[in-house]
Amino acid sequence: MKPPPVLSDVTIEELAKNPYPTFDRIRSMASAVWVDSARIHLVTRFDDIMTVERNHHLFASTNPGSLMNKVMGHSLMRKDDEPHKLERAAVEPSFRPGVVKQHWAPRFRSIANDLINQFEADGETDLFSSFAAPMASLSLIDLLGFEDVAWEDIAWWSQALMDGVGNYQADPEISNRARRASAAIDQAIDHVLARHVETENPSILSSMAHAGHKHSREQIRANIKVIVGGGLNEPRDAILTTVLGLLQNPEQLAQAQANEKLFARAFEESVRWISPIGMYPRRVTQDTVLGDTRLKAEDQLGICVGAANRDTGHFEQPDSFDLNRTASRHLGFGAGPHFCAGTWVARQMVGEIAVPILFNRLTNLRLQAGNSPILRGWVFRGPIALPVRWDR
Ligand code: HEM
């Protein structure tokens, strides 16, 4: 058993441009590798991540020093055991598959169609700004139970919070923006909370207000902020990567167009192929061993599900997008007690609605020649633009 090896020749910019060669390198080195530039031990092997997620007493989400707690308040994502369970149960009614299908799906469908109406006649667009970002934002406004909030505002709040959570260099400008976003979200909650307390409905705010375990205003605020921060860029990025995967693999697109059920498989494959959340943190609670590596209490781990989802021990030709894969169990939604609460929402919004409607309505949808899409990020990853054309 050895201590974690150190990787000192990888920059954050390299990781943000294309993390996969570094992920491969780390996976071949050890179960946990200290990466100097990221200032964290990265865990990249599928089986090691499963071990971490099965042992949350050794690998905790609770993290007293976490920047997320400072920026958003102490949310369910940084709790374990009973405190986590109670707050998780409070949001779950809005996310149940039946509620998603009956209540949210018609709303998502109408948002998707309204957005396409606005650019259909143009014959070309950047799907990031005209479709994926407003689709994810408008859906989230409804899911939360917010009113009188513009999609551009919630998108800005979300980005400002996420920048704040990653602000390890303590840049005052970033901290200030995150504080402003946080205050704006508090106001948006105060604007509607009384109505949700009065009348029960499927929104997340209503679920929290009517939870068996009474929530303080601080708990409601922190958990709403976590969902604003974490429930927007992932579906946005998954819409774009699913479209990208299909457009780059025309024979698979033809298959999906012949059998619409395959769009859901394409979505699932896109979350494996380019995981929108590439890394999330855990804290080691006592001296222990993970795979071939010795870890010490208080070591911070970066759980790289984006890397595990390309582990050749689990996936054949993992760098390829392939909706016909038989081994489909991936870690794109995490695992264990913190497994993504919004999985059914994302599956419905992206795989069953946004992507099939786009391909159905925009004939011969294709990437703009000579304008290749750029992907960025390793903690969060997705296309930063997706310029496309179709036949008018
Ligand atoms: C493709 C879309 C999505 C992906 C890939 C994704 C991915 C993830 C991952 C990997 C985690 C685990 C993080 C950790 O363990 O620290 C997570 C947690 C979570 N996600 Fe998602 N997510 C998506 C969409 C959504 C949506 C649309 C919502 C809500 C509207 C949402 C709400 C949550 C919440 C509340 C948690 C925390 C759960 C807990 O701590 O118990 N997610 N998500």
UniProtKB/TrEMBL annotation:
Entry keywords, A to Z:
Heme, Iron, Metal-binding, Monooxygenase, Oxidoreductase
Q: Quote any Pfam family the record assigns.
A: p450
Q: What is its EC number?
A: 1.14.-.-
Q: Name one GO molecular function term.
A: monooxygenase activity
Identify the domain of life: Bacteria
Kindly give the Gene3D superfamilies that the UniProt entry links to this protein: Cytochrome P450
List, alphabetically, the InterPro entries matched: Cyt_P450 (IPR001128), Cyt_P450_B (IPR002397), Cyt_P450_CS (IPR017972), Cyt_P450_sf (IPR036396)
Q: List required co-factors.
A: heme
> What family is this?
Belongs to the cytochrome P450 family.
Protein name from the UniProt record: Cytochrome P450-pinF2, plant-inducible
> What is the phylogenetic placement of the source species in the record?
Bacteria, Pseudomonadati, Pseudomonadota, Alphaproteobacteria, Hyphomicrobiales
